[in-house]
Design brief:
The chain is of the alpha+beta class. The protein folds into two domains: about 10-75, no CATH class; about 85-165, no CATH class. It contains seven helices and eleven strands. Helix 4 (about 135-140) packs across helix 5. The radius of gyration is 18 Å and the shape is globular.
Length: about 200
């Protein structure tokens, strides 16, 4: 378990306001909502700092962890954001998968692996043992917004199948590319403002 504290909550609030919100989930180990903030992604183990806030929002922090992103923190986030479990050998080959239940099937799904932009496995569909990482979703969908939507939606099927079902036409994709270029040119547009 991570050493959460209630002392100097202002430190956590300042860090979170300067950083970026990565994701939010309910940590089963705590039975409470947690929100993860970082200065940037992907995180380097044993180098980068991370803030995990327990509570509904930054104004109502119950406790927090602000410190180095180490193996203990990574394991806590993996355990509390996964459906199912996997075992990989040292070179990344799948040794065993225990799929967990979703509304429509049984999969392995790890939100932390996806939202932290790590190279860890974040999804294994119900049928087959294909391993999907954040980069696989990004390459399939071209844009982070679409990759997030596909990742959040798949709950039994292969990501490629779901992406094909969306059937975005080329005109829509070209319009989206133009809007993304406008965002790059105008730094006042926040990253989390959707262009859809």
């Amino acid at each position: 378990m991570i050493d959460f504290t209630i002392e100097y909550i202002g430190h956590a609030q300042r860090y979170c306001k300067r950083g970026s919100r990565v994701f939010q989930t309910v940590a089963e180990e705590l039975g409470k909502k947690i929100t993860v903030y970082t200065a940037g992604l992907p995180l380097q183990l044993d180098e980068d700092r991370i803030c995990i806030v327990v509570g509904d929002d930054l104004e109502h922090i119950e406790s927090y962890y602000l410190g180095i992103y180490d193996r203990k923190v990574k394991n806590f986030l993996d355990r509390n954001s996964s459906i199912g479990e996997i075992e990989l050998d040292i070179d990344g080959t799948l040794l065993d998968v225990s799929r967990g239940g979703t509304e429509q099937g049984f999969v392995y799904k790890n939100e932390w692996a996806f939202y932290s932009h790590s190279d860890d496995v974040c999804y294994i569909p119900e049928l087959g043992d294909d391993l999907y990482r954040y980069q696989d979703f990004l390459e399939l969908c071209e844009f982070e917004e679409f990759a997030e939507d596909v990742f959040n939606t798949v709950d039994w099927q292969f990501p490629e199948t779901y992406w094909d079902e969306l059937d975005y036409d080329e005109a829509f994709m070209e319009d989206f590319r133009k809007k993304k270029e406008e965002q790059k040119k105008n730094p006042k547009i926040k990253k989390d403002e959707r262009t859809l």
